[in-house]
Amino acid sequence: MSENSDKKTKLRVVVCGGGIAGLALASFLSKAEDITVDVYEAKSEVRTIGAGIAIWQCYWDLLKDAVGLEAKWCARGIPAPEWEQMKGPTLFRADDPANTHEFFQLDISPTVIPRTMLLETLLEETNKRCTIHTEKRLVSYFANDNGTVTLSFADGLTATADLLIGADGVHSQVRETMYRDTPELAQPVFSGQLAYRLKCRSESLPPDHRAHSRFLIWCGDGRFVTSNMVGEFVQMTAYDNVEVAADGKFCDDWVKQIPVDEVSQQYSGWDPELFSLLNASSDASRWAIHTVRPLTRYAVGQVALVGDAAHAMTPHIGLGGGQGIHDAFILSQLLMNSSIDRSSLGNALDVYDQIRRPASQRIAQWSLECGLMYGFLIPDKKDLPPDSLAKEFYMRTDWLRNKNVLNTELELAQNELRKSLQRGEKCQA
Questions:
Q1: 8 Å CB contact between 195 and 239
Q2: Which strands, in side-by-side order, build the sheet including 131-133?
Q3: What is the pTM of this model?
Q4: Which of 67, 93, 98, 324 is least buried, going by the fewest C-beta atoms within 10 A?
Q5: Residue in 44, 21, 33 with CA at minimum distance from that of residue 338
Q6: Among the listed ranges 128-142, 196-210, 250-264, 371-385, which one has the minimum average pLDDT value?
Q7: Could you tell me the pLDDT band of residue 425, with boundaries at 50, 70 and 90?
Q8: CA atoms lying within 13 Å on the CB side of residue 195
Q9: Fold for the domain defined by 11-84+106-187+292-428
């Protein structure tokens, strides 16, 4: 564990998982001199997968101030996002070339940045005051009589802390241990959606191809494709819906390299621009999208969950990473409250669960519904006229127009914490 005297340290925190949510939490907590943070990562190095990550303005503003994201972005010669000028994805019907038409455009948009850049920024901030341990795969944890929690790793070593944060993703071992008596919540479940990821260099496309300058969602019966620019590349994801087994399991590799034409042939009768875009890719991979069923608690005892470990969701609003950052912000601010120490830790964790669980689970449901609507798969919404369909999308994204959404939620959380402490409650941790 990090070296700090007991007199100075009010909380010893262990974060299990060195992904975006885990490093965001560690970097936020690193601002508190009376909290020590150790990050345990299962792999041999902290790294991420995937090309780009969508960052909405509320999360950009947070990371700009907290970890200097915008300064690092601009240092690469890339201008900061001009949020007021940005438009969201354009949705158009693309499965009938004779009747291709736009039917909705979101008037707000995230910016898409390389995942590696975000991770490196968080890692740099985390390294200032936190200790990162690699090749530490968690096996289980157990609570001690003195109010601490002990972690056991695959290499036989252990660590003890006042608080364990599970930020170990959809395969979370922390969640599996927390819900060992409820296996249907402990394990991830196949969403019924397959995502085919492809990319091509923009220079390989005709100059007038619409994918050059617009974030597009190519919609059709039962499936859809997203395309957007990330640096010099057009990044594409084609989504298909398949039947889910009764046990919720996907009986093949979760990630698998496949031939490009296995994807493009599914769209051979669609808009020719989409077909040519898919065929311009040099390789493709298939990802089985797994989620987490709605949990009954995000915090039990001295253990809490953040990010995909708590609410792995479909990617159809671009909020999976953002919600992990959101969790990290609210939880870190509660833990850094001057009234919180070992004896009142349970109060902070109860408020975190009370605030973040319903909010993140609602967004996970909205994301799932948006994906189904892109493929016209919700029966009572399939044949809605364009203006009615637009209202459905607005309803699920309207909260993102509130630039102060994080501070509003934090104020609510701090008020709930204050009331809990004033009532003299000592929640069990």
A1: yes
A2: 131-133, 35-40, 11-16, 163-166, 303-305, 299-300
A3: 0.93
A4: 98
A5: 33
A6: 371-385
A7: low
A8: 19
A9: FAD/NAD(P)-binding domain (3.50.50)
pLDDT value at residue 428: 57
Compute, in degrees rounded to 10, the torsion defined by CA atoms 390, 368, 331, 333: -10
Here the tokens at position 112 are 């898409």
Residue 4 pLDDT: 42
Q: Look-up: residue for tokens 């019924």? A: 192
pLDDT at 383: 77
Burial of 86-119, coded b for 16+ CB within 10 Å and e otherwise, reads: eebbbbbbbbeeeebeeebbbeebbbbbbbebbb
According to the model, what pLDDT value does residue 203 have? 92
Domain 11-84+106-187+292-428 shares a fold with domain 190-289: no
* Over residues 261-271, mean pLDDT: 94
Choose between 426 and 114: higher pLDDT. 114
What's the mean per-residue pLDDT of the chain?
A: 91
User: Looking at residue 251, what is its pLDDT?
Assistant: 87
Mean pLDDT, residues 27-35 taken together: 95
Spatial distance between the Cα atoms of 290 and 172, rounded to a whole number of angstroms:
12
On the question of pLDDT at 7 being above 60, the answer is: no
Q: At 111, list the tokens.
A: 């910016």
Q: How many CB atoms lie within 10 A of CB 181?
A: 7
Instruction: Locate the domains of the chain by residue range.
Output: 11-84+106-187+292-428, 190-289
Please state, for a pLDDT cut of 70, what percent of the chain lies above it. 97
